[in-house]
User: Fold this.
Amino acid sequence: MQIIQKRKIFYIISLLIIIPGLVSLVFQGLNQGIDFKGGSILHVKISSSVTSAEVRSVLSDFNLDRSEVQKSGDEFYMRTEVLTQEKTNEIMKALETKFEQVTFLSSDTVGATIGKELTRNAFWALGIAAVLMLIYITVRFEWTFGVAAVLAILHNVLVVLGVFSILQWEINSAFIAAILTVIGYSINDTIVIFDRVRENMRKTKRQDYQELLNKSITQTMNRSINTVLTSAFTLVALLLLGGATIKYFVAAMLIGFVIGAYTSIFIASPLWYEIKKAA
Assistant:
């Protein structure tokens, strides 16, 4: 399998995926959820037989169908866009009409300042993760592997961000968790291939990097594909049956896992080849 020889084809495929996402990020940006732009948290007590989906159906009558509804026993926490006192009263009346024994407990507003802090912390988390991975891979392998791995991670993050921007899917704090999970998954898959590259380098004195990489990728490809398929099946099931609350969280991981497998095989190793050749 001549993956390295055909690397320019894979670079073009990646650019065709990433560039529309970057354009969308510049002109549309991301559809930030309550965690980032602020909103209201409505805390009520309802009969424990009522489900989150039933409460969400009431909110959808007020065009708040994207709101998060969390249930804890007979208490419900509804995270919505910023509500006026009048709108809050209307929602309470609608809940009381549909359900019995509805008790208002509290209503709080989360300001945009907290959202800015969360955004800043998210960038710090991604930056720190990238730096630590670069250091770890440099120590375990060499710096060329580390740079290639970090560039591959950046590729995966840009793809996920681009898709969410193009489709204007809402992002929240769970999205950051999904991105960090994708980074961890991708780096694990990439290290497996790089580890095989290192093993094969020790077995031969003649360093034909193209042949070496093609051999290493072929030897680990079945593992990479089987791993991503196993994860993807579970995520698809969650996407179909998990409910609206975790829909975008699961979608981010599914996209990230699939593109992560592609990147590990077709992008990370060719990037290492380019860096090694230049060095």
Summary: The chain has nine helices and six strands.
